[in-house]
Design goal:
It is built from 14 helices and 9 strands. By secondary structure, the protein is an alpha/beta fold. It binds nicotinamide-adenine-dinucleotide. The site of nicotinamide-adenine-dinucleotide has 29 residues, from α4, β7, α7 and α12.
């Protein structure tokens, strides 16, 4: 019997394996350590391991060593990496029956369902729990967490997720990954059109602060006008911490999902094409807010 906490009988705090200590995973793992969990953290980056150890976590040197925990959280780039990690022979033998894998990466819902079936054959449960709220939300423990999985398994991991933000039950396994991808397709499309509008307005002579103030009190409001433009684009930092390539990955997951259920993602496909053009020009590590600068440079003013 696993000692994963349940809501009616708290029991001992579960040991947590945390695989993927990147921009999001590092602050999330640190919060779990601060709450008193034993966290076995693994990443390919030595620097990330050192940071976890400095925060009081236990740095381990393979995914298999992190997978011996009661709850194994993944915060990896995409489904390809998640699948490779979960099929790694050492991970397969380390995952105990009745342990729970929580994939908090933004992965592909149909592949998540396949992995859930594969793990269930060995008694291991899978919950998908991707997040929204960015690096700032991860640092503050204020993520929105989109949870997919059967109710009993979700009950077992909810106390852990609640340390990282607000878990919202979205449905069965894969539901969290589906809603996350759809959210990001909307977010990316908003950001593109907001950037076109802001650049056009500025060239017309409008004050960008005034434009944002009007949009935020009007129907053009979105996460792009309330957060991305004022915090990461106007100040010129382009430092939201969410990579452009990761955004494009999520957009493609959403348009593929739409097609799989016979919805033609006409605007979504257009957005994917535009974002792909920016991705071809920009550095692989570019922040996704860089698209605003790219749109401006792709539309030179008449005198330059
Ligand atoms: P990141 O690239 O900063 O981190 C990914 C980490 O995974 C890296 O540290 C990398 O070394 C590690 N990694 C890769 N392959 C590995 C392997 N085989 N074994 C162990 N570690 C491995 O990415 P991120 O920004 O932290 O995003 C992680 C996930 O969260 C992605 O799916 C992303 O789409 C999603 N997400 C990111 C944000 C954000 O604002 N950055 C917001 C919401 C969701």
């Amino acid at each position: 019997m696993s000692d994963v906490a349940s809501s009616d009988s708290p029991g001992p705090m579960p040991t947590i394996g945390f695989i993927g200590l990147g921009k999001m995973g590092s602050p999330m793992a640190r919060l779990l350590v601060a709450a008193g969990h034993r966290v076995l953290g693994f990443d390919l980056s030595e620097e990330a391991l050192t940071q976890l150890a400095e925060a009081g976590g236990t740095a381990v040197h393979s995914a298999g060593e992190a997978a011996v925990a009661d709850v194994v959280i993944l915060m990896l780039p995409d489904s390809n990496v998640v699948t490779a990690v979960l099929r790694d022979a050492d991970v397969v033998s380390a995952l105990a029956p009745d342990s729970v894998v929580v994939d908090m990466s933004s992965s592909e819902p149909l592949r998540t369902r396949e992995l859930a079936t594969e793990l269930a054959e060995r008694g291991v449960r899978l919950v998908d729990a991707p997040v929204s709220g960015g690096v700032r939300g991860a640092e503050a423990g204020k993520l929105t967490i989109m949870v997919g999985g059967d109710g009993e398994t979700v009950d077992r991991v909810e106390p852990v997720l609640a340390l990282l933000g607000r878990p919202v039950r979205c449905g069965d396994v894969g539901a969290g990954h589906a809603v996350k991808a759809l959210n990001n397709l909307m977010s990316a499309t908003h950001l593109w059109v907001t950037s076109e509008a802001m650049i056009a307005g500025e060239r017309f002579g409008l004050d960008p602060e005034v434009m944002l103030s009007v949009f935020n009190g009007s129907s053009g409001r979105s996460g792009s006008t309330e957060n991305k433009w004022p915090n990461f684009i106007l100040p010129g930092g382009y430092d939201s911490g969410f990579g452009l390539r990761l955004m494009l990955k999520d957009m493609r997951i959403a348009t593929d999902l739409a097609r799989a259920v016979n919805v033609e993602p006409a605007l979504g496909d257009g957005a994917v094409e535009l974002w792909s053009r920016a991705a071809e020009d920009l550095e692989p590590a570019a922040d996704h807010t860089e698209v605003a600068r790219w749109i401006a440079s792709a539309s030179p003013t008449p005198d330059n």
